Amino acid sequence: MRDTAIFWQQVWAILWKDIRYELRSTQTWLSMGMFALLVLVIFNFTFDLRVNNVKAVAPGVLWIAFIFASLLGLGRTIAAERERSILDRLLLTPVDRKVIYLAKLVGNMLCIGVVEIVALPIFVLLFNFDIAIIGDLIPIVLLGTVGLASIGTLFSVMAAATRARELLLPVLVFPLVVPVIISAVQATSLVLSPAINEPPWLGLLIAFDIIFLSVSTLTFQFVVEE
Amino acid sequence: MNVQRDVGERSKEQPDEKYKDTDLDTASTNVHVVSTPIAQSPIVEIQNLKKSYAFKPILRGIDLTLLQGQRMAVLGSNGAGKTTLLRILACLDKPTSGTVRIAGLDLTHNPQHVRQLTGLVAHQPYLYEELTALENLLFFGRMYNVTKARERAIDLLQRVGLERRIQERVSALSRGQVQRLAWARALLHDPHLLLLDEPETGLDHNGNTLIDALFAEHTHRGGSVLFTTHQLERALLMSEQIVLLSGGRIALQRASADLTLDELRRIYSEVVK
């Protein structure tokens, strides 16, 4: 019981440190937010959107914005730590490696979440959807974010140890998050234009999240220490 | 050295027989170390330690023993393997082969326990620049699960002469002040073994006097120190044992009392060409 309390206190301590650090520098969140907005605006202008095709295009646009913005931010916290050898400082302490992973995961989810909170209403406005659909989209966005961040956090550590980290991170992450993205895009499509006889995309999304979270939590120790 | 230490993961390996009296209680979930270290039992035992990076050998078979309460100076030119040795002892790097035991615990099988027993001051301060001096120490206090971390942090900040800089961010501190804070960070969890990689870097005369005092306090309480330096005179003054590394091997290992400065200089210049 006491060990569990210490575990979560340490997760909170790392998370608090990362949030405070990020709020004081503000670089990552601002650039991610701007990037997501720009993607939405550019897609809105470049596609010839009409009433009959907007619902087919919009989910893809939304998730492309989220993925690229996420990747921008994903590697930053750990890359910054690697650059200053501060991940070594965390690794030097006897803190459980799962603590580090969970704190980084929640930190990344918060970072992506802030961008999504800003981007979702703008997406709805730009693509002329009813504002009420935001409520239906939130669970999908949340689950998609868990999938993205769980894999992204793990691989950002691997990529951060290399010189070509900016290039390597998307190369490693994109293929692995394809199932999450397909499920999220399809689930979003169902919200925008409900259909019957569709696979349970939300259930699939949950299943992928559980798999990715479990595997990433278990393998993080080996990735970070080797 | 009576900070309660909790290590999240329980050790399956029992500590060395000779450490049983030091109350390293592995029967409970938390490891509680109340140290009154037994004099003259080894804190560091290294046997045939080898380390390679990308097939390039850095350490080529090191055998060392450091006793509790002792100070060992590790000398050598750049690239001799001093920092690698310290990184292995601090569990930041894994040995390629060989055995390393800290306080009787195998470093490869028990890294979490070993981390709790060691404190490192290296070239990198391992501090968060955007956090204040106090926030840094509180954060690391939580990582090491130090009880009464705030009091301990404030005490240490006073001890290293940073009591007026408590609320200043690390990025606003001078190089010497950052080094002092790194010392406070390394001492926060009251480690048994201090690992110091050129600890005098960036410190002025007062700073050097301070670390001499911290050295003395640490060993007086039964702690051990393994430090690297390029200053031969300082190495001779501050240690009981001198080790000279060259090309990843031990070229000299002798009690400091058996060496004169001139002799050490001569050997050093012969070995390090």
Describe this structure in words.
The complex is a heterodimer of chains A (226) and B (273). Chain A has 226 residues and is mainly alpha-helical. Chain A has eight helices and no strands. Chain A has helices at 2-25, 27-46, 54-83, 86-92, 97-126, 133-160, 165-192, 201-225. In chain A, helix 1 packs across helix 5 (97-126) and helix 6 runs antiparallel to helix 7. Chain B contains eight helices and ten strands. The longest helix of chain B has 16 residues, at 205-220. Chain B has a single domain (17-271), classed as P-loop containing nucleotide triphosphate hydrolases (Rossmann fold). The relative contact order of chain B is 0.17. Chain B has a six-stranded mixed sheet with strand order 6-7-8-3-9-10, with helices on both faces. In chain B, strands 2-1-4-5 form a four-stranded antiparallel sheet, covered by helices on one side. The N and C termini of chain B lie far apart (42 Å). Chain B is an alpha/beta fold and 273 residues long.
Bulk shape of chain A: globular
CATH architectural label of chain B = 3-Layer(aba) Sandwich
Order of helices and strands of chain B: EEEHEEHEHHHEHEHEEH
Largest interface: A-B, 28 and 30 residues
Helix content of chain B: 25-40%
Tell how many strands the DSSP assignment of chain A holds. Answer: 0
Work out the oligomeric state of the chains in this entry: heterodimer
Number of domains of chain A: 1
Main beta-sheet annotation of chain B: 6 strands, mixed
Proportion in β-strands of chain A: under 5%
Low-confidence stretches of chain B: 2-38
Q: Structural class per helix/strand content of chain A?
A: mainly alpha
Strand arrangement, largest sheet of chain B?
6-7-8-3-9-10
Query: What amount of the residues of chain B lies in strands?
Result: 15-25%
* Mean pLDDT over all positions of chain A: 84
SSE topology string of chain A = HHHHHHHH
Rg result of chain A? 18 Å
